[in-house]
Structures are given as C-alpha cells and as structure tokens.
Design brief:
By secondary structure, the protein is mainly α. The chain has one domain: 3-Layer(aba) Sandwich (Alpha/beta knot). The protein is 27% helix and 0% strand. The chain has two helices and no strands. The N and C termini lie far apart (42 Å). Keywords: Cytoplasm, Methyltransferase, S-adenosyl-L-methionine, Transferase, tRNA processing. One of its GO terms (molecular function) is RNA methyltransferase activity. This is tRNA (Uridine(34)/cytosine(34)/5-carboxymethylaminomethyluridine(34)-2'-O)-methyltransferase TrmL.
Length: 79
C-alpha cells in the first residue's frame, strides 16, 4: 500500500540475472513484492520495465501527485 504520501517509500531492484540476494529476501518477506508472470516463456522482465511497473503502481495509488494525467495541445498535430 503506497497511498500514504507522507511516508517515504524506497524500492530496491536486483540484477536481471540474479535478483536481490536470497538472504535479504528471507529477512524481509513482508516487504517484498513480486510481479506475476508466466515463467514458462519468460526468463525475467527487463529491469527498466520492472522499475516502471512498480513506480507507476505506487504513483497510481497516490493519485499521481503533481503529475498531469491528461494533456491538451494548442495545435492538434493529428488533424
């Protein structure tokens, strides 16, 4: 739960090849999150994609504070 904007949140990501150290994971199971994936076809998510998913979800839960969720253009370039 990342809805409390007064609380500082930190995210640690391990290497794409090895992840975070097993000892760290075992010592902090309540603070670890897992992004579900089909392990049959995917070895691992790219680290930058994983970071984007996690940060997006945290910001989504906070209502995207200080970020524009829509944008209007003066000149519509698609017309």
């Amino acid at each position: 739960d990342y809805t409390n904007t007064e609380k500082e949140h930190y995210f640690l990501f391990g290497k794409e090849t090895t992840g975070l150290p097993e000892m760290f994971m075992r010592q902090n199971p309540e603070k670890c999150i897992r992004i579900p994936q089909n392990d049959e076809h995917i070895r691992a998510l790219n680290l930058s994609n994983t970071a984007a998913i996690v940060v997006y979800e945290a910001l989504r839960q906070q209502g995207f504070p200080n970020l524009e969720t829509t944008h209007t253009y003066e000149n519509d370039k698609l017309k």
